[in-house]
Design a protein that fits this description.
heterodimer, A: mainly beta, five-stranded mixed β-barrel, three-stranded antiparallel β-sheet, B: alpha/beta, Peroxisomal Thiolase, Chain A, domain 1, nine-stranded mixed β-sheet, two-stranded antiparallel sheet, 13 helices, binds zinc ion
Chain lengths: 143, 380
Amino acid sequence: MSQHVPMHEGLFTWPSRKPQLLGSRCNQCSEASFPAQPDCRNCGSRDTDIVELGDRGTLWTWTIQTFMPKQPYHSDETAETFRPYGVGYVEMPGGVRVEARLQANSPEDLQIGMPMQLDIIPFRTEENGEQKMTFSFSPVMET
Amino acid sequence: MDVAIIGIGLHRFGRSPDMTGMQQGASAVRAALTDAGLSWQDMQFAYGGSQDAGNADALVNELGLTGLQFTNIWNGCATGGSSLHAAYSAIKSGEYDVGVVVGFDKHPRGAFNPQPKEWGLDDWYGETGLMLTTQFFALKTQRYMHDHGITEDALIRVSEKAFNNGSLTPTAWRQQAFSYEEIANSAMVSHPLRKYMFCSPAEGGAALIICNADKAHQYSTNPLFLKAAAVRTRHYGSFEVFAPSQAMTVADAPTVTASNAAFEVAGIGPEDIDVIQLQDTDSGTEIMHMAENGFCDHGEQEKLLREGATGINGRMPINTDGGCLANGEPVGASGLRQVYEVCVQLRGEGGARQVPNQPKVGYTHVYGAPGISGVNIITK
Ligand SMILES: [Zn+2]
C-alpha cells in the first residue's frame, strides 16, 4: 500500500479510523482556531491547547471553484483533467468555522445550513509514490 | 491643520504595453504636477506603493534625484488608501507643507496568485486551492445574500451600472456597456458571481499633490480638502479574506470601523455625501460595502439598485467612473484612482459622467487583504 501522508502535520488526526479536524483552544477566553496556533487571535494569550474540532459540521457558506487556480495551487491535475470543486466554511461543534474543499461541486448539491461530514482524501501523488492527503467535507447522506 | 488636494493625475488604466508600471506611475505624477502648476523640485515628501511594478521610491530615477523623503507603502489592495493616509498625517503633523502620493502597477494577465508565506499562512492552504480572493468574495456574498434576502438581480444591476459608467469615462479601461441579459448570461466563475461581475488585474497609475490647507490658495484657485482619512484593520470575528477559519461570532468589518472613524473626524454623516467611490472588485462587494459604509441598511440595496439610486443621476451616485469593474485593478493605483474621480466630480469636470447639482462632498473606500479598509472624505 502506498504511503498516505497529510498535506501538513497537525491539520487532522492521522492515521486514524475516524479522523478529526484539529485546532487550538485558548484557555483564557475559550475561543478556537483552525489550524492550531500557539497564540490566541482573540485575546493574545499564549495559553492554548491543541483540541479536536470534530468530524461533522454545518455548511455556513459555499462557492464553486470553476477554473484551475494558478500556482501556488499544486495538484495532479492538468487544464484538461481539472474538475471544479466546492469551497465552503463549515461550522464545527468545536466552535469555529473552518474553510475547506467540498466534494460536491454543483449548486444543486449545496445549501447553507446542511449537515456536512469530514473526509480525508488523496489530493496528489508525489514522485516517490507518497499520496498527500487533505481534508474535505461532503454533505451527510441520510440513510 | 487641514489638508488640501491641489493636483490630480492619472495614467490611464487598462493596458499600456509599451510602458513599465513605474513609467505609468511617473506619468501620473507629471500629470498631477502639471495640474497643480508645480514641479517635482517643489515636492518635500512622497508616499507611494505598487504590488508588482517595483519599489515606488525608484520613481526618483525618472522624476529627479532631489533628495526628498520618499516612503514606500504596501498594504495590499488598500495601498492607495494607506499612502494617502500617511501623507495626510505628514501634513497634519506640520512637518511638511506639500508633497505627492502616488500608486501604480502592472500585473501579469489572469487572476492574482498570492503566496501563503507572505500572508503568514502555510503552503497547504495555497496548494489545496483555498487561497483565491475570488473565492472569498463569492463566499462572503453568498452568505450575505442568504442573510439579507438579496437576489442575483442586485448583482447584475451593479455590473450593468459599472460598465455603463465606464462607457462614459474616457480614462476607463472597459468602455463597453453590457446589457442586463449579457451580464446575467455570462459564465459562472465562482457561484454566485459571474464573469462580468468581477474586475481584472490591470495596469495604470494615479497621483495626488497635497498640501497644508492654509497655503492651498498660494498654489491653486480650486483646492479641495481632505477632511478625513482613516485606515483600520480587522477585528476578531470579522469575515475576511485569506482566513482558514473564522470565529463563530461575527464582528464589524474593518470597513465599518474605518467609515465610522472618518465620519467622526469630518463631523458629517453618510447623508451628507454627494458622490461615492466604493471598492467593487466584484459586484457582491459593492453591495456589501454600501451598507458597511453606512449608506443604507443591510438588505436595502436591491431596492436602491432597482430605483437607480446609485446611478450617476441617483441620490447616492456610486463609482461614477465605473469603479474597479470598468477600470480594472492595478493594486497600487486603485485607491488613488477613486480619490482622483471624486476630485473630478467635485470640480465639475466629469463630462458625460458628471453628477448633477454641483456635488460638494465626496467619499472613497478601499478594501484590501487580509482585512484592511481605508476611507477618505473630500470636500470643496
Ligand atoms: Zn484567548
